[in-house]
Design a protein that fits this description.
Length: about 230
């Protein structure tokens, strides 16, 4: 984005950062104070946007040994995006938030572990679940299992968005419907692969159901609404 949004981040840096620092102290009084730095990035017209520079967060250490969070941000984007990255910084100051974030990055930074997780998401675990359940209800079960496998990322993003809304509210910038929708849309972008994975697993499981029924494998079949002794 080369032109400022209606509510650009650059105009909300200070109040949102102050609110984030206060929230971090409130959530975990025993933690060291939240330190926030910024690295601005504005793409040139026609340039492919570098998402990692437009809205992301990096953890680092200052020369004196103190831990700090650097927010990479396009100053023109909506302030809810800056609040979301601050939400990550706040979350990482809590014990559970730090644990979830570290688990997420361990998976993402380990190719073998990532492949194992993707294998589970894209068929193996959801397929087994779908094969063990009858009817359309297996869709929800498969998606739930896929979500559980990917939960570090999903929980990390959910915590960041929850904190973002609180930060905006505390800064006197209560999120508009559009900003809430933007945060929800960002979360759904992480959830979409899980929904697709759940569907793939369900299809595989249902195919196994059909095969079993056709060849009368596994003994007596139960019909919907009927309990067999």
């Amino acid at each position: 984005m080369t032109k400022p949004d209606r509510y650009p981040s650059s105009e909300a840096y200070d109040p949102l950062t102050d609110a984030a620092i206060a929230r971090a102290a409130q959530l975990n009084p025993d933690a060291s104070p939240l330190l926030v730095g910024r690295a601005e990035y504005v793409p040139n017209p026609g340039e492919k946007v570098d998402i990692s520079r437009a809205a992301s967060i990096n953890k680092g250490t200052l020369p004196d040994g103190r831990e700090a969070s650097r927010i990479n941000i396009n100053p023109n984007v909506d302030r809810s995006m800056y609040a979301h990255e601050l939400g990550h910084a706040v979350s990482q100051k809590t014990n559970i938030g730090k644990f979830i974030n570290e688990a997420r990055h361990k998976i993402n930074n380990n190719p073998k572990l990532s492949r194992a997780v993707m294998l589970g998401i894209t068929g193996a675990v959801p397929a087994v679940a779908a094969g063990l359940q009858a009817g359309d209800a297996d869709v929800a079960g498969s998606i739930a299992l896929a979500a559980a496998i990917a939960s570090p990322t999903l929980v990390d993003e959910a915590l960041a968005s929850k904190n973002a809304l609180a930060i905006m509210n505390d800064a006197g910038m209560r999120a508009t419907a559009g900003q809430r929708g933007r945060l929800a849309g960002g979360f759904l972008s992480y959830l979409a692969p899980v929904l697709i994975a759940g569907g793939v697993g369900t299809a595989i499981g249902n195919a196994a159901d059909d095969y079993t029924a056709i060849y009368n494998l596994g003994g007596d079949q139960q019909t919907s609404g009927t309990l067999q002794p």
